[in-house]
Each structure stands twice: as structure tokens, then as C-alpha cells.
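Forum > Structural Biology > Help requests

Title: Can anyone predict the 3D structure of DDE Tnp4 domain-containing protein?

Hi all, first post here. I have the sequence for DDE Tnp4 domain-containing protein but no way to get a structure on my laptop. I'd be grateful if someone could post the C-alpha cells.
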Amino acid sequence: MVSQLQQEVAEIKSNRRDVDDLVEVESIFIRYKLRNMEDFNKAILEIAALGGRNTYDFIFRATQKIISNKFSSNFSWLGRKGKRVFKDLSLSSLLINAAIKTKGCTIKDAEIAIQKWLRRCNKRAKNENKINSSISELLQRSTSLESLWNFPNCLAAIDGKHVITDKPPNSGSLYFNYKKSFSVILLAFVDAHCRFTAVDVGAYGRSSDGGVFANSTIGKKILSNALDIPEPKTLPGCNLRLPHVFVGDEAFPLHNNLMRPYPGRQCLNNEEVKIYNYRLSRARRVSENAFGILVKRFRIYQRHLQIDPDKLDKVILATCCLHNFLRNDTCHWTEEQHETIVRPEGIENIPGIGGASTTNAMGVRDSFKNYFNSPNGSVSWQTEMVRRGKRNVT
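Reply #1:
Sure, ran it for you. C-alpha cells for DDE Tnp4 domain-containing protein below:
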């Protein structure tokens, strides 16, 4: 089996469709070398640690770590319709053994789950091909953030929330979050009119730190610079060219295309930093507003959702689509409405992600800070806002 695995890796390397397939396959096979059965068992243990709600969910998570949907769409279980045979691959044996170890299922159950996954690979691969064009088209329409919320080169505001649910049966601690409740995570990009331009639903509530954003489809594309983002543009009133960015709170990492506030310790006695944080918070507030409107319109979010996990993701997506449908009218969010939003019981904030930021990302943030404090980029009320509540010490 070990020699067969090595041959398959060599074949994938020579016939790979793209670099991602090579990287994903090597990450699980080459890392362990698979020179003996002990290493093969280590690979089984690593895959088994991914967990899942059921056998199919486990197979889905495991295969996403090993090979891409685009590569997998070249296979069928028995090699029908001109595709290659997946059943005889030792990768199949690896998945079946891991599924048996993780879910306690039978060989037949694991094979049925793999067949179901293979049938859906082609559709998922097509959806992945669309994600760049569709997301970029939607986000490019969000340039009204500049005119309405005074943040140039801003494509959308990003935010994530825990959608609280009752503990699903036989789920262990998968859904148990840092606030000691059970949830799934909704990650959303929001435009200037509080419409969701892209959402990622279904991450387990236990996900924390880099797992929430970095493991989402959109997050991976942003952090790897694979998202089709418009070219850097000159800021209004000056010759400074800066990249287009998303804005988020301190829960998200700082990146060339993702701006977050300065930490609190840098705000002490530094009015320029406070002004930047105010301008960024003013722009990203649309995401908080969108979640507030979502909760007010769909009262299911004001309590714990008692829905089967397999249907919960669809319910959340449906409410997001209906929210956008209802937002497509002439009655948009106004700044005065912000204070009327009630903190819902069914939605909670995600924990901070943090992580090391690159020098380039810090430079982009500093450039925005300098621009917001310059005559060309400032707004008349920003100084008053950051000084509000500050005591005059003589």
C-alpha cells in the first residue's frame, strides 16, 4: 500500500492540474513520507482528527484537506463516463480507514459517503470557478462606502457572528464556543447599504483564532492574494496609491487588503491613531447594522435555534438572501437608526484572531491613518468625535 501511495503521488505531480493540487497532496503524503505502515497510520490519525457531524461530513472535510474539487472531478467511484477509477486508489483506503476510526462506521457506509462526495465534486468545482468573478463583481459595486461612509478604496465591511443553537446530538464539543454555548459561525461581507455581498456559513462554534477567517473560502483567497481584487487606486485629492481593502474589527488579522483598528495601547495620547480607528469603525459599522437588521426582521435569531445541523446552514443562508431582497428598495439604513438595534440573544461576536502582521500591511494602515489626518482626507467632525468624553486636564 505504501509503495502504491508513493506512485500515486508521483502521478499526481506529473499530471497535476494546478499548483494547489500538488501542495495539498504533498501536505498529507510527502510530509509523512509514507515509507512504512507506521507513517501510514499517522496519516490516518491526522485525517481522523478533522472530525465531522456524520460520515459524509467527515469525508468532505478530509478530502478538502488532501485534494481540490477540481482535481477530484476527474474521478468517479468505478471510473464511469470516461473518468478515472477512484475505488482502486490507496487514497480511498486511507479515507475509509480514517472514517472507520473516526465515526465507527462500516466499510460500506464509508464507500457510500465517498461516492456521494465524488458525485458532487464537479458542481463544487464549477462554483469555485465562479467565486472570483462573482465576488469581485459584487464587491466592486460597494464603492459607495466612500461616498456614504468616507472610507476610500473600501470594498466591503467584514464581520463574523456565532449563531446560537441547541447542542446537536452526538456532536461532542464541535459546536461548543468560547462563551460556553453551542453555535455555528456566519461570516459576512457587507456593502454600504447593509446588504450581504458574500457569506460563509457552517464553521463549527469551537473554531477560534485563525480557524474562523483563515479556513473560510473567502478568507483563504484574501490571505493568499488569490481573490480578484481591483488594482490599487489613487486616493481622492492626492497622489497616494493604496490597495483596495476590506475593513473589519480587531477579530480579524491585518493584511494588505484587510484593515483592522490599531490596538488600544497605541491609542493612548495619540489623536491621529484615534481618528483612524474612528474612520474605520464608521465604515465597518455597516456590518453590525446588517446583523442588527437581520435579527430584527427574522425573530428566530432572538432565541436559540432548535434546528438539525444539516438544515441550519440552509436556514441561515435563506435569511441572508431574504434580507438582501428586502434591502433592494429605496428605504436604506440611516445613521440615526443605529442606536435602535437591540443586542440579540441568538447572535454573538467571534473571538479575536490576531496573528503576526506583515510590514507591508502595517504600512498600508499607516498610510490610511496619515491620509485621514491630512486636509484632503479628513472630515470636519472627526476631531470632535474622538475628543468626545475626554476630560480637559490642566
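The beta strands are 75-76, 84-85, 154-165, 182-190, 196-204, 233-234, 241-242, 245-247, 258-259, 347-349. The two ends are 79 Å apart (CA to CA).
Shout if anything looks off.
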